[in-house]
Amino acid sequence: MGSVVDVTEGMFFPDEKNVMVVRDLSKYFPVRRGLSDVILRRPARFVRAVDHIDLDIPEGKILSLVGESGCGKTTTGMTLIRLYDPTSGSIFFEPKEETLDKLKREVGNLDIYNGYIDIAKLPAKYVKFLRTDMQIIFQDPYSSLNPTYRIYDILEEPLKVHGIGESEDERRDMVLKALEEVKLVPAEDIAARFPHMLSGGQRQRVAIARALLLNPKFIVADEPIAMIDVSLRAEILLSLMELRDKHKITILFITHDLTIANNISDYIAVMYLGKIVEIGTPDEIVNNPLHPYTKALIKAIPIPDPSMRNKLKDIWIKGEVPSAVNIPSGCRFHPRCMDYEFHPEIQERCRNEEPKLIEVEKGHYAACWLY
Amino acid sequence: MYVLGWRGVIREFFRYKSGVVGFALLMFLVGLAIFAPLLAPEPIFYNWYVPTYWSQQTLPKAAPPEWINSFSDKKFAVRQVLDPINSYESPSAYNFTFIYNYQYDIPTYDIYFEIDSSIANNSKMLMLVDLIRPDGNKIVRLIDLKIDQPFVRISLRSLEESIRKIFGFGLAYESEETRKNITERGLLKVLNPMNVIFSSTGEGIVFGKTKPLKGRYQFNVVIFKINPSNKVNQIKMIVTGSVYGLLGTDALGRDLFGGVVWGSRIALIIGLGVAILSTLIGVVYGTISAYVGGWVDEALQRIQEFVISIPVLPILLIMAYVLSPTVWNLIFLLVIFSWPGPVKTIRSMALQIREQLYVLSAKAIGLSTWRVITRYILPQILPYTFALVAFSVPGAILTEAGVSFLLGSQGTLEVTWGRILNDAEKYSAVLTGMWWWVIPPGLMIALAGLAFVLVGNALDRVLNPRLIR
Known about the structure:
The structure holds 2 protein chains of 2 kinds. By secondary structure, chain A is of the alpha/beta class.
């Protein structure tokens, strides 16, 4: 069983203990075929939203997944917590002890690798047992709360569903405490309201409180500040960092904004068109980007210096994001890559062979034929 | 989607004119249905298809409504129940005098005598009626009849001997040729004897072509006791008139107002019952189809499309004929064919709601599919189902009317608007100008449909998320 143990030990962060180890994970969405496609026997086509990715998620840390919209980062987040069923690959996850006990009891032939289970292979009907361990905070707080429920009911529901709390009173205390924890006070007053009576920031904190109530060890935060007033963003970010520091919760922070990722995360993974192209610490990613795509992202960050305002920034990328249905051959970034232009010697390779993530510098991985 | 409270929905609803009008019409129909027993006695409902019941009601047949007298310059005789103005008892006989003051242009349909008496076993009394017209002419022994039961109701028109006498009186004024013509061709059967009694003398009296003879008609009734212990307790003369009630009567003398009023009950029960049941089924079906998705969705949609494309009426007719055609069976059959109606709409709404983040977050919390459907999706759809119910009522009422109309006596056992129309058609009411037999039930069907369409339109505007402004 030696090789299996190796897998769960991870390959990107040797100094960390990983709460989740993702190997060769894919999520394809079938493109609906018309009648003519069926008759003409055209092959089924897929949106390859997540395409054979490897990733380690270190325990008690914030890992940011950065990429432009449509690159598959949200799909990755949802697949990791089994809101989507993966097409192929493995997600090794170390559940809480009581969850593992429950799973052992319920699932007939559960393979346990050193305390980890492969949740990608877990049958759909057992997935609900994972909900106490992994939660998600959505991007849009305006539609992530049931408009017909009061805040109290929204927060009490997860407790009821999972049989947490002995009595109504106990659950009530837990709900009010959770509201206070995300600084929604007076909690009694907030609990009696409907979602439409709260501001976006308040709603997002309700969503955080709901995720926290189940006491998860892993939270996917899917662009949680994208739709919130700029003035309130810092607060949400601070409460996420507090979750990490106080509750030792692991967070996968999904964002398109490299500066925010730089500020709050311990590690950053950069994603392009369903593939992870670079992994490293924020410091290395920002100051020493290796992959041409990361370089382009960093060059695109506006510099708050008035003297620059008349200068056109040189853009280190060309064209548009290709469709995830027709992914370019070889390195999927090569049609947009500027380094490709300047390095004719590797061009053939870029066009035909897909690069793998390799450790270019210590703890800094990139998937590019330049290295 | 924003949330209106119940009060908000009601307030919004009445801001639309169609809502107010529809609600008023609906209340009118519901009022008719609820207060039917007060508006028309219950036996009308139970005995609608019992001819003996209606022959006891002494109503004129094929009579237009009473209020027609306000619009027509020819006045119709109205119903009158007369007591004798004079009664005299001798040891051998009773003498009663009835005075009927006739001031109309169209005579009564019939005249009844009701006699309540005590008769010794195997004995009988003899009744004779003489008529003295205002012009002094007499018809002697207009009625000559034996009474052998304690209670008798005598219809003048059903006594052949009397009719012969009446025409005999009238024919005396006709030309030789006409008399021959009438007797040879047996036309007497189709002529109205009442015209003869209530018209002035002259040529054409048997056709009622002479002027109406207005004034006091005296009916002298003599009842011979024969057995001295026989007694007459009460005697009444009923002039049926030639108009009746609010909506007149049909060819069998049934009070159409009663039929229309009680018909509203059946129409509403069938309409609402079918609409509510089929919408409920359709909503649950559409929601499950949308939420579960995949091949389940495919299969459910194909089944729905199959059922909705079945031509309903012919199959309904056959099935209603084979099953015993009660109202409940009809509801059952209509539901079987009408549940697919709202499915597509509901499915598309549920598909939209399914993609809402709060449904995904419910999944993330670990809610079961059933709980997500019942707690997250159905409550969002529920308000709109009220509009759907309102929209599908007219269809159900129309189909019921259609089935009842086509099946007639093979259809429902209860009186419905459709069956009244079926009867009207059977007695060619339209061809004989009996508009009061056709228009009221037809209008009620249209009104019921209109009421629910108006209410549905207003509800749709208030509750359909895509139309909310």
